[in-house]
Amino acid sequence: MTDWPTSSAKKAGARKPRAPRIATRVTGRISGRAERPVTVVDISTSGCLVRLGASFDRGSIHDLVLDLPSGTFQAKVRVAESSVEGESLAGGEPSYLVGLQFLGPAPEETARLSRFLAAERRGRGGPLPPAS
User: Which of 35, 52, 94, 107 would staple 31 via disulfide (CB 3.0–4.6 Å)?
Assistant: First the structure.
């Protein structure tokens, strides 16, 4: 007999596996009502973590443009989480860490991102370990 996880077990902390993340410092911009500059902290094929000067509402949808060495990467993104960056509180203006999920980028954008990730892995020795 197979033990299937119950809905309470899923709520108790079972997380969906994430794609391997690569630490980077790519810049770009996110837009919704206003355009804001972002710095990518880490990135994968499914999303990225960005640092910026404003908080975003969880679940909100935005346009993201990243300045990759091979050209721009553009995608619609959903805010998965947003929190104030603790280190920024000591210096005046807070900065925020915002987790973004890519929402079905076009095939050519996915290919550009995949090439960038492969080059970063070769240059840095591999992906970051999965979050626990």
Answer: 35
Instruction: State residue 89's pLDDT score.
Output: 60
Please count the other Cβ atoms lying within 10 Å of the Cβ belonging to residue 109.
17
16 is written with which tokens?
A: 């969906």
How much is the pLDDT for 132?
40
Domain count, the chain: 1
- Residue 34: inside a domain, yes or no? yes
CATH assignment at residue 103: 2.40.10.220
The reply to whether 4 falls in a domain is: no
Each residue of 52-91: pLDDT tens digit?
Answer: 998 899 999 999 999 999 899 999 999 999 988 876 566 6
Tokens in use for 122? 């070769």
Q: CB of 50 within 8 A of CB of 42?
A: no
Q: Containing domain of residue 66, as a range?
A: 21-124
Distance CA 32, CA 79 (A): 12
List phi, psi (to 5°) of 38.
Answer: -135, 155
Cα(119)–Cα(110) distance, integer angstroms: 14
Rounded Cα distance between 67 and 48, Å, is 14
